[in-house]
Write a structure and sequence with these properties.
359 residues, alpha+beta, 4-stranded mixed sheet, 3-stranded mixed sheet, 9 helices
């Protein structure tokens, strides 16, 4: 499986080209739009790797890591030998990821101070009415999340308290650790457990957040929802996830859009579908009927003479706005001939006369 081939881009494609290719293909193959679910998953997998500079570099070097049980199709690690080794019980198997990271580089880069302080991302759902997708919408949400401590302003120390160098790591934020592996003992560098990689420790921690620089709190803010948003689309709100530890960068908020089913209109892509019941006489003789669009606009619709049940009429530009673009989809009106359940004597007599006339 070639990720570049899946997205239809060259290996030297820019990040912007990759992004454009993904959006085009995702729109085409999205399952909610009637696309191929398997193809959509392949496209998404390819984009998740190629849109990340680190993952892309690793892919360019090794291919799909551990595909078929071997890193990049090359010579893999002999686990049969490892389990057959008489001294395997002396090894720390929880550190196997560290072994691969140090010897092969599969584990990615080492965590930095910023990484350790960064707040977690938050995922929520927002439910919209179909009418809400016709225009830009602002939604207020209240989340119980980690927020910056107002007493210490995220620093974790009591106001006025002195900050001293960590005794364990001597201010480096890192300590050396000796580990046993399949290959024998080796020394690695890890985060200092005393100062959590900070290199410094306050003489007195904040009384409110206990040195974390953040507390659990209700926070209300607004989320901008663009016009034309569709079911299961995700809106990223930068920095609205959990606050980071000790002034670290906040996580992001990912908002998934859910759209309620409408009692009258059905959405298919950016088009709307409406089923309209008409009288038999209107279908035979033709007429004008009034309909109401999703945005409550009244329109006069011409029913052609001799219309059959199931005929579909198109009204341009009365569908859903195109997401991130200009224009709107169309409104399709499916005409259905109404069959009366009860008839008056006069109606029955008229129909019998028409029956005799061959109608």
């Amino acid at each position: 499986m070639d990720y570049y081939e899946i997205l239809g881009v060259s290996k030297n494609a820019s990040q912007e080209d990759i992004k454009k290719a993904f959006h085009k293909l995702a729109h085409k193959y999205h399952p909610d739009k009637g696309g191929d679910e398997k193809k959509f998953k392949e496209i998404n997998e390819a984009y998740q790797v190629l849109s990340d500079k680190q993952k892309r570099a690793q892919y360019d070097q090794f291919g799909r890591v551990f595909e078929g049980g071997q890193p990049g199709g090359g010579q893999g690690f002999d686990f049969n030998w490892a389990w057959g080794n008489k001294n395997y019980q002396d090894f720390d198997f929880e550190d196997i990821s560290d072994v691969f990271e140090d010897f092969f580089g599969f584990g990615g880069r080492k965590a930095t101070k910023k990484d350790l302080r960064k707040g977690k991302d938050i995922q929520i759902d927002i439910e919209l009415n179909l009418e809400d997708t016709l225009k830009e919408t602002i939604k207020k949400v209240t989340l119980n999340k980690m927020s910056v401590c107002q007493r210490c302003h995220g620093q974790g120390a009591e106001p006025g308290a002195k900050i001293k160098e960590c005794f364990s790591c001597r201010g480096t934020g890192q300590v050396q650790q000796v580990k046993k592996t399949f290959f024998g003992s080796y020394t690695s560098v890890g985060v200092c457990p005393e100062c959590q990689g900070e290199g410094t420790i306050p003489e007195k921690s904040c009384n409110v957040c206990k040195g974390q620089g953040r507390i659990k709190n209700d926070e209300t803010f607004e989320i901008f929802v663009p016009a034309g948003v569709d079911m299961n689309q995700v809106i990223k709100v930068e920095g609205k996830g959990d606050a980071g530890k000790k002034g670290g960068k906040a996580g992001n908020l990912y908002t998934r859009i859910l759209i309620k089913e409408h009692p009258v209109f059905e959405r298919r892509g950016d088009d709307l579908y409406l089923e309209l019941m008409i009288n038999y006489s209107d279908a035979v003789l033709g007429s004008e009927v009034e309909i109401e669009t999703l945005d409550k606009t009244k329109l006069s619709l011409e029913v052609p003479m001799g219309t059959e049940s199931g005929k579909i009429l198109r009204i341009s530009g009365k569908g859903i706005p195109h997401f991130g673009g200009y224009g709107r989809g169309n409104l399709f009106v499916e005409l259905r001939i109404r069959t009366p359940k009860k008839l008056t004597k006069e109606q029955k007599d008229l129909l019998n006369k028409l029956k005799k006339e061959g109608l």
